[in-house]
Amino acid sequence: MTGLDHPAEPDRPLGRPRATTHDELEAIGMDLFGRRGYENVSVQQIAEAAGVSRRTFFRYFPTKSDLPWGDFAQEVDRLRSTLALVPDQQPLMAALRRAVVEFNRVPAEAVEQHRARLGLILSEPELIARSLLKFQLWREVIAEFAGRRLGMPGSSFLPELIGEIALSAAVAAYREWIPHPSADLPTLIDTAFEAMTDLEGLEHGSAATLAQRIALPDGRSP
């Protein structure tokens, strides 16, 4: 996670560099991004704060822009494993809806860290550019699943389309969730999928019902 709930690390620890891990380095980097701003933090500064060398940093993260994503490849594998367990009798879009909601469910104590991470990824130009590659991995997993269900290659038009639609629904939910601390991300994503699968119904009354589902405690919608 972002590590924003950890005590601030010293900017330049003295003495023999301590051992570190992927998660610790990520936490230190995210803490520095939160305090100084992403553009104002270098790989060298993150390495110094962690008490490691630049070489060690690059052993864990190919670039600075990879750090906010954490171990995204592992998360993508988790999504793939979740979809592999879906019963064949469960409808395609219902299966995707449930899997994507569960993929984005985080423990209560990590919610604000997750919000800070997504807020950074979806606002910094360098990270937005990096997201094109990262989200492609996510879309491919969705397209692979859709392709199996439709009896065609995951790289063909319809599975690719389903992958794009699913990603758009998730990102739209992220953008609504980030500035609204009282909103619930799984509910937003579930609502986005429900709206997406019945677009015709939105102009026939369902829009108001869906908006009520995601209303904040004070009665406002995100």
Automatic annotation (TrEMBL):
- Which residue intervals define the domain HTH tetR-type in the entry? 19-79
Q: Tell me yes or no: is NADP among this UniProt entry's keywords.
A: no
Record flagged with keyword Hydrolase: no
Binding region for DNA: 42-61
Highest taxon above the source species: Bacteria
Q: Which residue ranges does the record annotate as region Disordered?
A: 1-21
Q: Which residues form a coiled coil?
A: none
Annotated protein name in UniProt: Mycofactocin system transcriptional regulator
- Annotated organism of origin: Citricoccus nitrophenolicus
The organism's lineage is: Bacteria, Bacillati, Actinomycetota, Actinomycetes, Micrococcales
> Which gene name belongs to this protein?
mftR
